[in-house]
Amino acid sequence: MPQISERICEDLLLRERALWTALTSGNPGPAVLKMCSPEANLLFPQMPILTVDGDNKILNAMENKFHRFDNYSLDEVRPIVIDLMAGVVTYKITAARGSTAYNASASTTWGQGSDGEWKIFCHQETLL
């Protein structure tokens, strides 16, 4: 039986891949919003900080073609367990839309609620 830290790492990796599946979909807003804690901050290159509520709402910013790629891969992925209910996943993202390449380093901080669901507290991408 895997140790608890191994199970947390597996959960975090599954959630991160679900996030990228949502981010690269045709309409990412609703799926990404469902993954976010009420206090979540999402930091994407050359954009204002996105939040659940306020002037820069996730749903408004993630309309059609937001982060829409033909393919992507996560490299140098490193899950970090903070404690039993929190963790961070760091990695490099390589993606493409047609002949346009996207290369960034990224991290997502996840927290687990009392219901057992992992939620995003902060997601950040930095262009390379």
UniProtKB/TrEMBL annotation:
Domain named DUF4440: residues: 15-120
InterPro entries registered for this protein in UniProt: DUF4440, NTF2-like_dom_sf
Short name of one Pfam family: DUF4440
Domain of life of the organism encoding this protein: Eukaryota
Protein name: DUF4440 domain-containing protein
